[in-house]
Amino acid sequence: MKTLTPAARRVLDVAGELFYANGIHAVGVDTIAAAAGVTKKTLYDRFGSKDALVAEYLTERDERWRAHVRAVVARSPRAGALRRPLLVFDALEEWMAKENSRGCGFVNAHAELPDSDHPGRRAIQAQKEWLLGYFRELVADLRNPARLAESLLILLEGATVVESLQVTPSAVATAKRLAKQLLEGAA
């Protein structure tokens, strides 16, 4: 994470909370500046534009997610090739319990940012590509790792959406069970 001034840190923290809770388009810079206790000029001086602030919010959220996933996986250093990818599902369960009540912040943002040139879209793309790459890394020693990683990503992403909508409250556990079957088949 890049170093921010205290005012920029407040702006980014407040913006992140408001964007996630209310949606990007529903939150204006006036609201963010007032909630952060800064002027709009300070917000623009630190971030340049609302679009840049959105991109920074998504980038920082991605960095927190990556660190969380890695930490959960690192807690089980002796986990074998069949168990390590399942730890990502454990990480998702923990994340959703504390940080993800409205579903995936990246999917939500993607729905609000139709312009493919928006800097936030690059952050969203980078997050999903990282997750796919991380799954590839975790399943590298199994059969057909590229296809297996894609399947795991689809299961994880689908479970995130379905569980956040409360369609199936145990969607992550179900996806993890299906992932385990895929992994066993690839051993």
From TrEMBL:
Q: Which keywords, in A-to-Z order, does the entry hold?
A: DNA-binding
Reply yes or no: does the keyword DNA-binding apply: yes
Ranges of the DNA-binding region feature: 28-47
InterPro entries, per this entry?
A: Homeodomain-like_sf (IPR009057), HTH-type_TetR-like_transc_reg (IPR050109), HTH_TetR (IPR001647), Tet_transcr_reg_TetR-rel_C_sf (IPR036271)
Instruction: Give the species.
Output: Amycolatopsis acidiphila
Do you know which SUPFAM superfamilies this protein is assigned to?
Answer: Homeodomain-like (SSF46689), Tetracyclin repressor-like, C-terminal domain (SSF48498)
Q: What is this protein called?
A: TetR/AcrR family transcriptional regulator
MF term (GO), any: DNA-binding transcription factor activity
Q: Which residues form the HTH tetR-type domain?
A: 5-65
Query: What PANTHER family would the database entry show?
Result: HTH-TYPE TRANSCRIPTIONAL REGULATOR RUTR, HTH-TYPE TRANSCRIPTIONAL REPRESSOR BDCR
Positions of transmembrane segments = none
**UniProt keyword DNA-binding present:** yes
